[in-house]
Amino acid sequence: MIWLTLLLLFSLVATTWIGFRFLNHYRLITGTPTSLIRSAHQGYVEVIGHIQDGEGDILRAPLSNMECVWYRFKVEDLHEKKTGPVNSGESQQWFQVSDSSGTCLVDPNGARVKPDYTRTWHGNTLNPRDETYHHTNTTSRSLLTKELSGPRYRYTESLLMRHEKVYLLGQFRSVGGGRHVESVKDLTKEVITEWKANYTALLERFDENGDNKIDMKEWDAVQKAAAVEANERRRSQINSPSMHVMIAPNNPAQPYLISTLNEETLARRYGLYSLGCLVAITAEIYGLLYLWY
C-alpha cells in the first residue's frame, strides 16, 4: 500500500505539472494577438505567414527524399525487442516565413514543431530509399519469408514544406536598420583589438622608424586610423537593411511553437491535453482516497 501510495503521489505531481504546462500553452495561443512581421514588437509574439525557401541549399528529407525546409524522422526495428528508434534525426537549418508586411528568418532549434504532414510506412531496409535495390537482389524464397514474417522496419517522417501556412509563437527580434549600433568608441576598441591580433601586419603599416615596435607617435596614428575604420563600420551598420528573426525564448514558461496546424486546431489540442490531465488528476486523487479511507 505504501509503494502504491508513493507511485500515485508521484503520478499526481507529474500530471499536475504537465497539465498546468498544457494549460499555459493554451492560454498563450489564445491570448497572444497576431502581429505583422514589419510592425511586431521586440519580444514574445505570434506570427502567421507562409513558408518560403530555406536559408541555405535545398533541404531533402532523409527517408523520402522530398524537398522541404524542415524534417524530423525516425526508423524503428519491429523485430528488435529493445525500445527506441534505430535511427532518428531533426534538421536545424533556418528557413524564411513571410506575411503581407515582410519576411523573417525562423530558427527551428528548440522549437516544438507540429507539422500537418506526417507519414508512416513500412519496409525491409534501414533506409527506405534502398528498398528498390533491396528487392531486385532477393530470391523468391527470401520474398516469401518476408511476406510471412512481415516488414522489419517502420518509418515515420514529418515535414514542413514551402508555401505552407505556418503558425509561429516565439521570441521576435529585429537587427540591422540602425538598431543596436555600437558607439564609435566601442567600435574603435574592437578595431584595435583585431589589428593587435596580427601584430606583424600592424608593424608593417604603422612602424615608420623600423624599430619593430609601436611608439607613442605611431600609436596615435593607430588610434586615428582605427577611429576612421570605426566610423565606416558604424555607417555601414546604420545603413544595413532590417532583418527579422524568430528564435526560442529565454523564459522556459514561454513555449516556442512552429506549426502548420491552424491556430484554432492547435489551441483545441492543448485544451484537450489539459482536460485529459484534469481527468487523470481526479482519478489519482480518488485512488489515494480509496487506499487510505
From TrEMBL:
PROSITE patterns: EF_HAND_1, EF_HAND_2. Residues 194-229 form the EF-hand domain. The chain crosses the membrane at residues 270-292. Keywords: Membrane, Transmembrane, Transmembrane helix. The keyword Glycosyltransferase does not apply. InterPro entries: EF_Hand_1_Ca_BS (IPR018247), EF_hand_dom (IPR002048). Coiled coil: none annotated. It comes from the Bacteria. This is GIDE domain-containing protein. It comes from Neptunomonas phycophila.
